[in-house]
Amino acid sequence: MLAQNQIVLAADRLSKRFGGNTVVDQVSIAFAKGRLHSILGPNGAGKTTLFNLLTRDLIPDSGAIRLGATDITDLTPDRVARMGVARSYQISSVYLDMSARENVWVAAYRARGGNPFVFWRQVTRFAETREWAFSCLQRLGLVEIADVPVRELSYGDQRLLELAVTLACEPRIILLDEPTAGLSSKEAERVKRVILALKGEFSIIMIEHNVGIVMDLSDEITVMNRGAVVAHGSPFEIRENRDVQEAYFGS
Amino acid sequence: MLWLISAQLVNGIAIGMIYALMSFGLSIIKGLLNIPNFAHGALYALGAYLCYSVVSLGMSFAVGLAVAFLGAALAGLALDRFAIQPVSGSGYLPQLITLFGAALVIEQALLIGWGTVGLSYSPPPILRGAINLGFTIVPRYIAFASVFSALVISAVWLLIERTKFGAYVRAGIERPETTQALGINVDLLLSAGMMLGAGLAGLAGGLALPLVGATSTMGGDMLGIAFVVLVIGGLGSLYGSIAAGVLVGVVQSLMTIAAPAASTAIIYAVMIGVLLLRPQGLFGER
Amino acid sequence: MRSSDHNGTVLAKSIEEPVEISSVGTTARPGPLTANLIRSIGIIGAVSILPLVMPINIATEILIFGIFAMAANLLIGTAGLYSFGQAAFFGTGGYAAGYLLAHGWTSLPLALVVACGSGGLIAAAVGILSIRRLGIYFMMLTFAFNQLVYYIVYSWRSVTGGEDGLAGIRRPVLELPFVGSFSFDDNRSFYALASVLFLATMIVLVRMVNSPFGLVLAASRQNSRRTVSLGYPVPMLQLVAFVIAGAISGVAGALFAMLYRIMPIDSVHWTGSAYVVFMVVIGGQRNMLGPVIGAAVFIWLQGLFSLVWTRWPLLLGVFVIVIMASLPNGLVGFVSKLSSWTVKGRGQRQC
Predict the structure, then answer these.
(1) Contact C218/A97, CB-based, under 8 Å?
(2) In degrees to the nearest 10, what's the CA dihedral of A221, A224, A230, A234?
(3) pLDDT by residue for chain B (286 residues), tens digit each?
(4) DSSP state, B83?
(5) What mean pLDDT comes out for the span C322-333?
(6) Which domains does chain C have, with CATH numbers?
(7) Rounded distance, CA A131 to CA A109, Å?
(8) Beta carbons within 10 angstroms of residue B176's beta carbon
(9) Closest chain A residue to C209, measured at CA
């Protein structure tokens, strides 16, 4: 279905159990370069767990993960991150005690190969990192609020900042976990436009409950239920799939 | 030699049961309030001193133990009301600091009330002497302390596993967010948990009185041991601390045969070993 | 639960404001460079005046515990690692340097290097075993290791003097080529030595908090998982911070041993660990000045209470509870809250 050289990230029969529950069950999935690939499914379908396995935040019980041609199954999460896999979290995970500028700086510094064991030189002295971080804020229209403590920002701005942080990682692949969760429809629309602008430039994998957004943005959709893949196809194919309609759309 | 070893083994079980009482109380408080109770050692010392006062007034040792439990439980309630609750909204460190302040207050109050000289007390006549088991001789008090601690631990275990209060405690430990949703008065639950945990520490102090006496430094020493026991047992496990307490007591006692000076250091060595081999503790889940 | 999630205050900010902001047009406020200069002069001035307004040994003690508290704040305020075992490293440094000074080695650089090295080494050992344990586990472990060090000091009489403490410590001598040698037997010259080390520690730690290391450490305090997902080896960063704090605590311990020419066993007791956490909390973790103020208040109170009553720790305990209930963010937090009502919008660091 996909030419081998187009696959940027792939899972091969990946499984994860918690106690007696198999949360991700023998999932094989491949993500293609430059495409926006969404994962749909009811709560508890194992979507976020799959994300955590792909970024190695969780250790899979069995199966393999490949990033391009490299097997990353046994790497640590910070190593995986440094290989160009960036993610946003379902619950906002920006640094609340810092400014937006500092948030993006932390991501940008590491992405530019910065060494965290620098003790004397001041954060303010890294001109290149600063400019790159600033351009990420610019891209998401956050320049106005760059120096406000993040704690004081609206939830919508925090979600956008989370995207800016993800961008600052200079990723090859972006994993978005429910980017519009908890947002008003107006704020969700803003996030949607941002994702649309990023599409094509990056390979994006997205978990999203807002079916409208998924259908509008996605190139490909995989539907999961109870830890397994139940369907895969274009938005059109998924919409027409009877099993999916019953299992997920409930009609 | 074999006789010595078995005597120390029995001795170790008794001391271990007292450790288990301490750590079980600490574990309940930790589970419910999510804090390490830095005043736990002071409550243990309070129990020992209260028990001493009661028996020196001519009342029975049983009353002494009851007063040790109740007195420490009341002190626990006071701690919750005056040291923990006033700062519970302002984060984590203030609670630890006020608990530490409370420990200072209790320990100094003990010195004011009972003086700086260590106190000792022999068990009541009925618990003096020894029982001959054939292969070894067990001092009566050692046997009593072990059996009594086991009974208390079992009673608290039944309380937690079988009663409505216990169900709330377990819910509070396992799923703190749902207790709120169930409409339980969380403050009351936390106070009750604090009282129970503190009471167990006081009882342990009372039980330890005939064995080690009452001294001003007993609280701090015991606090370190109780933390070690909890780490060895595993923090995720409410009951792991009981087994770990007995284990630590036995190891420490047996060590006094080989190298008395190193008997305290050995329990830290056990802790380091457990940390290296099984970081989540013997009974903890990852 | 990760304990640091409880902590809501802004901790990472340092007293050093941005150096090169383009603060064009904001002539109403002094520029950051001027502000920095004023702060530096203020601190140096305060350090110079201190021995004039109180007994010189008390002033020296304030500086020593100021160093100790700043090191603890790197862990508590910046990294969010609530260590309750810092006295172990303070004690290790004090005993190691004290042993040398009591046995004929009097070189100041040697004593400081040994104090620094031994404090850091013990911290590395404790850190390797505890750093991956989160929240309550970490606190209990650091506490337990503190007790272990205490027992070792207590039982190793031949080296440490046991419960009598390590006596016979002599003040060190600094030999400089072409300049001559300085002895610190005089309390005023010893105060000068303490203030040089105090200021050096402050400069190093303030710069560290504003370096990439400090910012990433603060980031991992606020969200450790996120920081890992950005590609940082968080446990390694925390371990390094723990070792640095241990090494600096060791230097503070060595100065303490030199000050009274004895290393008392109480200095390695776990209450010392709790006291230093208290200094940090009472002063406020927002910047490195807070813990120093906390240390000053603590030493002053300790002196005051111990004059009043032999049971002074009781008064201290009551004071701790009252102050925590009324000022949970510490004195500096309280003062800056007052000032934020008058001055709106503090400048943020530009990076």
Answers:
(1) yes
(2) 0
(3) 677 788 888 888 888 999 999 999 988 888 888 888 999 999 999 999 999 999 888 888 889 999 999 999 999 999 988 888 888 777 778 888 889 899 989 988 998 888 878 888 877 777 787 777 777 778 888 888 888 999 998 898 888 888 887 887 777 666 656 655 566 667 788 888 899 999 999 999 999 988 888 887 888 888 888 888 988 888 667 778 888 999 999 998 888 888 777 777 888 888 888 888 887 777 776 5
(4) I
(5) 75
(6) 4-295 (1.10.3470)
(7) 11
(8) 15
(9) A119
Query: C231 vs A96: CB contact, 8 Å cut-off?
Result: no
List the one residue out of A10, A120, B196, B224 whose CA is nearest residue C270.
B224
Q: Which residue has the tokens 């004023």?
A: C38
- Looking at beta carbons, which residues of chain C come within 8 Å of B93? 7, 76, 82, 277, 281
C6 interface with A at CB cutoff 8 Å: no
* Chain C touching partners, 3 or more CB pairs below 8 A: A, B
CA geometry: angle C159, C164, C165, nearest 5 deg: 55
Answer whether A117 sits within 8 Å of C213, measured CB to CB: yes
3-state secondary structure of B139: strand
Contact call for C321 and B82, based on CB within 8 A: yes
Residue B43 dihedral angles phi and psi, to the nearest 5° = -65, -35
Contacts of B108 in chain C (CB under 8 A): 311, 313-314, 317
**Partners of A175 in beta bridges:** A87, A205
- A192 residue type, one letter: K
C-beta atoms of C231 and A101 within 8 A: no
* CB proximity C147 to B under 8 Å: yes
Integer Cα distance of B286 and B235 in angstroms: 10
CA–CA distance, B16 with B225 (Å, rounded to integer)? 11
Tokens of C262: 């004895």
Give the DSSP H/E element, type plus range, for residue A86.
Answer: strand A85-88
Extract the tokens encoding B57.
Answer: 């007034």
Number of neighbours of residue C214 by Cβ within 10 angstroms: 26
Q: Which residues pair with A206 in a beta bridge?
A: A38, A176
**Contacts with B235 from chain C: Cβ below 8 Å:** 136-137
Residue C204 CA to residue B275 CA, distance in Å, equals 33
> A36-40 and A220-225: which strand pairing?
parallel
